[in-house]
Design goal:
alpha/beta; 41% helix; 7 helices; 164 residues
Length: 164
C-alpha cells in the first residue's frame, strides 16, 4: 500500500510540475533569434527589453493555423479593452511571404516577428518556450517577469483576468 501511495504521489507531483506556470524565460529563449518585418535579426531578449516596465501580451501564431485565425476576433477585443498593453505577434509560418500575407489578410495590429526555422514549432525557439500548441499566449510584466506562461485560445477569460 505504501508503494502505491508513493507512486501516486510521484505521478501527481510530476503532472502538477509539468503544468506549472514559469515566471521567467530561459536563457535559450531570451537568446532566441527572431526576424523583423524589415528582415533584420533580433533576439527575443531585445524585443522584451524594448518594453521593460510595460505589460506585454505575446501571441505565437501562424497564418496556416485555423485555431489562430478563429481566435483573432477575441484578440482584437482584448486590444480594444486594453490599449495600454503592448501586443507582440510571433509567427511560426514557414516563409516570410506567408507570414506577411497573414498579417495583411487578418489585419493584425501590433509588433510582428517571425521565427525563421525550418523546424517551425519544433525548432530551437519553439522548444525554448515549451511550444506545443498555437495560438499560444504569454503575458510579461515589468522587468521581463512572466505572469502567464501557458495560455491557448480557450483561455481568454484567464488572459483577460491577468491583464486587468
Amino acid at each position: 500500500m505504501k508503494k502505491i501511495l508513493l507512486i501516486l504521489s510521484i505521478v501527481m507531483t510530476t503532472i502538477s510540475c509539468s503544468n506549472a506556470q514559469q515566471k521567467q524565460f530561459s536563457e535559450q529563449a531570451l537568446n532566441g533569434t527572431l526576424t523583423t518585418s524589415e528582415g533584420k535579426e533580433i533576439s527575443f531578449k531585445e524585443v522584451l527589453e524594448r518594453h521593460k516596465g510595460k505589460t506585454v501580451l505575446i501571441e505565437v501564431w501562424a497564418s496556416w493555423c485555423s485555431d489562430c485565425v478563429k481566435a483573432m476576433p477575441k484578440v482584437k477585443e482584448i486590444q480594444k479593452e486594453n490599449s495600454d498593453v503592448v501586443y507582440i505577434f510571433i509567427s511560426m509560418d514557414k516563409t516570410m511571404e506567408k507570414w506577411k500575407d497573414g498579417i495583411k489578410k487578418h489585419e493584425i495590429v501590433g509588433e510582428h516577428y517571425w521565427v525563421n526555422d525550418e523546424k517551425g514549432m519544433k525548432g530551437e525557439f519553439g522548444q525554448s518556450i515549451d511550444l506545443d500548441w498555437i495560438p499560444r499566449y504569454i503575458i510579461v510584466r515589468g522587468d521581463m517577469e512572466v505572469s502567464l506562461y501557458r495560455a491557448i485560445e480557450k483561455d481568454f477569460d484567464k488572459i483577460n483576468k491577468e491583464l486587468k
